[in-house]
Amino acid sequence: MSEEELSEYMDEFVEETREHIQALIQALMKLEQKDIDSSEALDEAFRIAHTIKGTSALMGFKNMQQFCHSMEDVLEALHSRSIEVNEEIIDLLLRSATKLEEILKHIEERGSDDVDVSLMKLELERYKERGGREEKGVEREEGGKRIYEIKVVLDRGCEFRGARGFLVLRKLSELGEIVKTIPSSEDIEEENFDFEFKVIIETEAREEEVRRVFDSIADIESVEITEVKKRKDVKEEYEGGKRKEEERIRRKKGAVRSVRVSIDKLDTVIDLIGELVINKSRLMQISKEKRIEELREVMAIQERIIKDLQYEAMQMRMVPVARIFEKFPKLVRDLYRAQGKEVEFIIEGKDIELDRTVLDEIVDPLLHLLRNAVDHGIEPPEERVKKGKDRKGRIRLVARRERDYVTISVEDDGRGIEVEKVREKAVKRGLISAEEAAKLTDEEVLKFIFIPNFSTMEKVNEVSGRGVGMDVVKAMIEEVGGSVEVHTEKDKGTRVTLKVPLTTAIIQALLVKVQGRTYAIPLSNVNEIISVSREEIKTIHGKAIMMLRGSVLPLIMLQSLLRHTNVDSEEEWKEKEEFVAVVVEKGGIRVGLIVDEALKQQEIVVKPPDEILKNTKGLGGFTILGDGKVIPILDVATLV
Amino acid sequence: MARILIADDSAFARLLLRNIFEASGHEVVGEAEDGEEAIRKFELLKPDIVTLDIIMPKMDGIEVVKKIMKMKPDATVIMCTAVGQKVKVLEAMKAGAKGYIVKPFKAEKVVEEVNKVLEG
Question: Is residue B114 classed exposed, middle or buried when 0-12, 13-18 and 19+ CB atoms within 10 A define those classes?
Fold first, then answer.
């Protein structure tokens, strides 16, 4: 292929190969599970290695091609049972797959596959040799069946080569099963060959009998018959070919039914739909104000259409979580093996779909959680046995679709978080007083682990058995409008549940009014709206607080926050008898924001702030309301 | 030695084939000018081999092959074709013809085809 053509296919090659490597890793992981018949997984792994070899050869990546070949050899030896499947080999193959990833990354970044693989190749080759692949002699199929590869050359003067080829195939098929032809039998009939074609046939007939077939067919210049060594090879290649063919057809069909669209374009479409939504609200408002009955009817239909359109556009951005989940089994495995632990890792709900942007955002938090589960949750086997637990720990990663959000939980059956220690620590760090701490429920205490640097102050695993970067996890999840919940039970395990919205482009928000201006607060940050009478408000260290169901809730005037003065003037608190407080929570901090009025809950389209305003404290973006007003969306995390 | 029935609407072609077959030691037991006649004579004469022109009046060669195959599944039929009838030839083979000879006829080719077919 020319340079130009190569670069044209590069993206596709990288994308496809990445998928293949993932599939290869999955197949290899399956080998480890003893209860499953390994031959299928081996077939799969072999086939994928073979495919990667093929495509990398097409792209001219020799190094990668040869490396795949070495992997293929080992897989082949495993398949023919000349070497046994064991942990060591699987480990080697998995490491090789990781190496492939490395090569691919190199290709993606630098366009070359120039990665040193010599050591690993050597290792692979050593394995193959140890296995002592049997290639001597010809393995006979049971029942005396043989495989022949027959090269047929037609006479130069042959007319209608297709018909002649057909006659050859028909005659041969009387002898046994035609396993494969090169080119395909259709191509032979269509005369898509010069004068030569190959037939692979499985038959009980001896070579002379096969040769005799050609005595009854004219226009044959020569026939070469070779007995093929192993039936498996051919079959496998054939099956692989067939599958490939099916895949090709499926892809072809798929290509007709789908097009690749860049995520940017999709975003633009969603953006435009957002504008439509806004405009729709405006029209609705006009029709209401002007009392135009007809327009109202039309708008009702319009509303439904736009809603469908919005839904469809959102669907387009949806990607199954499998996309990120696929990487985890290997990662978890690497982790627990490095620590000498035993873990059964279970994934559920891979097909659940999420907005791509949301999905990208939750990768790191999930990694954190899985790492925590392995590092701090699951105990070493001996400890587990002492506790009367199964040697093998269990980690479950479960995605579930709820109404308009998705929950993803990471659950382990490890030691759990020691709530009392968290409580002690909160007191020790001066976050709360001892009396306050005593009053807190376990659940409330657990919230402390989300406070930045809370548990990393000391040796993490001693304190809580967990907690590395929990504040980071929470922050990242809240970034996409989600929330985090923790449940734990001593020696039973811990479950961390991430609740994330399906999409970030449209959110539910609470509209509030402060000094005549409207603001939107993402509903995911809002706990509740309460009314507070002046008597309830107390002052500690000059700051307004109130007791809400037994715990302290700091109160802040939203207007003073927006003025960027954190001091509430006495007067403001004296102005009214009754206040409306929106209880918001973010980053483990809960405050009551005093607003003039809580207007309503509404679906809004988020427009991120532009470059200039991006770093404005408290500003999460804008939205345009039905009446055309531009409303700031408050970012609770930076506001408070 | 085989007993052959020749079906072709061209008298010249029939003569040519008759000469070739007889020169190579075969016996031409009959001739037919169209498809229907070919079938009638096939039933009547029970030849070892029938050569069928693809384009014939009343019933074309392919129809004839199909009919003959129904009557006698192991019948030996050789198609006579002109260059450029690729699709028709393949169709005839699929219908059950055992071989084909191409116009303009070359004696050695025709003989080879017949002898080979007889081998099978």
Answer: buried
In our burial notation (b when 16+ CB lie closer than 10 A, e otherwise), range A14-38 reads eeebeebbbbbbbbbbbbbeeeeeb
Residue of A160, A187, A216 for testing the chain B interface, max B β-carbons within 10 Å: A160
**Identity of the residue in B98, B102, B118 whose CB atom sits nearest the CB atom of A159:** B102
Cβ B119–A218 below 8 Å, yes or no?
Answer: no
Give the ipTM.
0.86
pTM: 0.47
What are the pLDDT digits (tens) for A411-460?
999 988 888 888 888 888 777 888 888 888 888 888 888 877 675 444 44
Q: What was the pLDDT predicted at B120?
A: 73
- pLDDT digit string (tens) for A527-542? 889 988 888 888 887 7
Chain B residues in contact with A160 by the CB 8 A cut-off are 81, 85-86, 89-90, 100, 102
Counted across chains A and B, CB pairs separated by less than 8 A come out at: 47
B90 closest CB neighbour out of A159, A189, A217 = A189
Q: Is A359 exposed, middle or buried, given 0-12, 13-18 or 19+ CB atoms closer than 10 A?
A: buried
Tokens of A304: 């439904």
Contact B37, B8 (CB under 8 A): no
Report residue A163 CA to chain centroid gap. Answer: 52
C-alpha to C-alpha distance for A180 and A153, rounded to whole angstroms: 17
Which helix (DSSP H) or strand (DSSP E) does residue A111 occupy?
none
B98 touches chain A (CB under 8 A): yes
